[in-house]
């Protein structure tokens, strides 16, 4: 098959450079993958892991309009070490003559900020020159140990053989760092809880000491079940983050043992003790832990002070059980301890498990509400289209402690604009929305109150007393009057949101008082809101269905839910009395007037 014309033409402009030596032209690897080999020379002194000359392959894939260009070390003449800003530099895959350790040349690392290199060009020929130039800068920085300098954001090494579709979540905040930095115990057991309905995804739920006594339980969403005292993992703590020079993770159990020994942690002894303790409590069909959790304090920037604790995990821990038998070996306790030690010293490859810190501030790096808002507990009255969307917005922005009050049942007719689905039909809106929100974030704490407002039973009245913010989304004057009469007791923030006819406007009222000022709110709403169109008020849900409908499309509901969520945030921060009417124009823009 012929080499594409754009790639053929791209080789000609490569400049004459004493640091660059073209070894051969393009080679077709089928499947739309093409490569050429070259050698690159340092302009600085070579180092232990970076020779003066090194072999590389530039690999291009994709079509001519969007070429993917990458560079890999040659399998024979290339570097074998793994550096910062580089994929794990493992051996070649299949028959391809390059190792898999692709340098991360695309990232804006400070070492690459040369004039004219702010962004990658679009033209293929220019891109080849750009990439090769970036590589030349990269190998110089690697040789001089400048790929990570003090103040750079710290990136952990890329671990080999990681299943990208599986993840184990942990929760470590900055405040938790002191808990682990000087622990009384440096190893123990842990329980891992699977997230229901999610493929190969779980969370560390409970840390236990070697006697299986709980020492730290992690608060997760109530949607994530926990099996008390079950042992799924062995955990150990390192005093500091450890790697092999220049920036490589361990690949075998033997290497992991050596890495631990380098920071004075005896991994073989820990595994032998863990196995022995578990064999004492082993029950029929007892499963041995399959995860090894390794924790250490981690800085946010290279060379800085540790900011929080971090966990990495190995999947293929296999401790000896009482049922394990080896031919020619006794089944004594000492023999089984020796087998566990043997695992730690073996060349068996490590199977790394992808982990992620799901602490609240890490989960919402892409967008969160103000800290003052996130710290509040919120009671939402009314889980219809507007209330459900507002509640979900607040939850995703970090308001995790919430109660949903609604006695209504969800119907298929609600599907045109509600966040719930057909699977929720015939179920209570509050219960099903709480279930959805508790599955929307691993730290969610949302409860359902399937009640009519106001509640009459003392226990139900008591359930409404301690919420910091009350958000009404019922659009009911009767509910507003009942909110005014309800014995809230202490001052709190009140927000009332109501869409106008056909969803063309939103009336919003906020106050911070000991009781809801219903008369003031209703008078302002009546004065500001346009009346409904009389000829449309009588529309029913369908032929033979005598249920009146409130017409509004999903985009209108979502627009007002977004504005309503912002109003809740503003009401918490400003704590003032406001009344506003928002009206939508034909082009979707919104006008606001004070009511």
At a glance:
This protein is α/β, with parallel strands linked by helices. It has helices spanning 5-11, 124-143, 177-181, 253-261, 267-280, 333-344, 360-363, 371-374, 385-396, 429-438, 458-462, 477-485, 518-528, 534-537, 554-574; strands at 20-22, 27-28, 34-41, 53-61, 68-73, 167-170, 187-194, 201-208, 214-217, 233-237, 291-299, 306-314, 352-353, 355-357, 378-381, 401-405, 445-449, 469-472, 492-499, 505-513, 540-542, 545-548, 578-584, 590-594.
Task: State the main characteristics.
eight-stranded mixed β-sheet, nine-stranded mixed β-sheet, alpha/beta, 15 helices, 25% helix, globular, 23% strand, 595 residues
Structure notes:
The protein is an alpha/beta fold and 595 residues long. It has 15 helices and 24 strands. The strands form four sheets. Strands 6, 7, 8, 9, 10, 11, 12, 13 and 14 form a nine-stranded mixed sheet that branches. Helix 9 (385-396) links the parallel strand 15 and strand 16. The longest helix has 21 residues, at 554-574. It is globular and about 80 Å long. The protein starts with a helix and ends with a strand. Mean pLDDT is 91; it is low at 540-547.
């Amino acid at each position: 098959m012929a080499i594409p014309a754009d790639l053929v033409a791209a080789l000609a402009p490569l400049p004459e450079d004493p640091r660059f030596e073209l070894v051969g032209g393009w080679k077709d690897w089928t499947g739309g993958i093409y490569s050429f080999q070259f050698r690159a020379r340092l302009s600085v002194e070579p180092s232990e892991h970076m020779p003066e000359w090194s072999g590389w392959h530039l690999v291009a894939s994709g079509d001519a309009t969007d070429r993917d260009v990458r560079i890999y070390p040659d399998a024979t003449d290339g570097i074998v070490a793994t550096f910062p800003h580089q994929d794990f530099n493992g051996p070649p895959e299949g028959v391809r003559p390059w190792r898999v350790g692709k340098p991360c040349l695309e990232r804006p690392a400070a070492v690459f900020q040369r004039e004219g290199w702010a962004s990658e060009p679009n033209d293929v020929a220019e891109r080849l020159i750009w990439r090769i130039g970036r590589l030349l800068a990269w190998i110089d920085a690697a040789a001089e140990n400048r790929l990570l300098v003090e103040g750079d954001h710290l990136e952990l090494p890329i671990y080999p053989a990681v299943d990208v579709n599986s993840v184990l979540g942990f929760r470590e905040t900055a405040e938790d760092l002191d808990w682990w930095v000087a622990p009384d115990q440096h190893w123990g057991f842990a329980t891992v809880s699977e997230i229901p309905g999610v493929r190969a995804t779980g969370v560390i739920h409970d840390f236990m000491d070697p006697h299986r006594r709980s020492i730290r339980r992690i608060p997760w969403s109530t949607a994530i079940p926990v099996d008390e005292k079950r042992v799924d993992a062995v955990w150990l703590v390192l005093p500091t983050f450890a790697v092999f020079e220049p920036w490589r993770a361990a690949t075998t159990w033997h290497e992991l043992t050596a890495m631990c020994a380098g920071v004075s942690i005896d991994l073989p002894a820990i595994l032998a003790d863990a196995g022995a303790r578990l064999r004492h409590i082993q029950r029929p069909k007892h499963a041995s832990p399959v995860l090894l959790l390794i924790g250490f304090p981690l800085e946010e920037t290279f060379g800085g002070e540790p900011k929080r604790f971090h966990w990495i995990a190995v999947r293929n821990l296999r401790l000896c059980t009482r049922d394990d038998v080896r031919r020619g070996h006794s089944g004594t306790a000492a023999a089984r301890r020796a087998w566990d030690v043997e695992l730690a010293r073996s060349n068996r490859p490590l199977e790394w498990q992808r982990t992620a810190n799901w602490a609240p501030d890490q989960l919402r790096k892409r967008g969160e509400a103000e800290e003052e808002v996130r710290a509040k507990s919120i009671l939402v009255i009314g889980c219809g289209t507007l209330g459900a969307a507002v509640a979900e917005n607040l939850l995703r922005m970090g308001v995790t402690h919430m109660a949903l009050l609604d006695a209504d049942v969800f119907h298929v007719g609600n599907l045109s604009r509600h966040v719930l689905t057909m699977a929720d039909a015939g179920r209570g809106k509050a219960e099903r929305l709480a279930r959805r929100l508790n599955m929307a974030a691993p730290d969610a704490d949302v409860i359902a109150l399937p009640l009519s407002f106001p509640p009459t039973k003392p226990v139900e009245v008591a359930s409404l007393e301690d919420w910091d913010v009350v958000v009404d989304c019922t659009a009911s004057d009767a509910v507003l009057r009942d909110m005014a009469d309800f014995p809230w007791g202490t001052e709190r923030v009140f927000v009332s949101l109501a869409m106008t006819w056909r969803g063309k406007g939103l009336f919003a009222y906020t106050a911070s008082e000991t009781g809801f000022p219903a008369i003031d709110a209703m008078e302002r709403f009546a004065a500001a809101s346009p009346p409904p169109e009389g000829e449309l008020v009588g529309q029913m849900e369908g032929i033979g269905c005598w249920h009146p409908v409130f017409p509004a499309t999903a985009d209108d509901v979502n627009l007002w839910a977004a504005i309503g969520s912002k109003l809740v945030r503003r009401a918490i921060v400003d704590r003032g009395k406001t009344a506003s009417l928002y009206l939508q124009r034909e082009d979707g823009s919104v006008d606001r007037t004070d009511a």
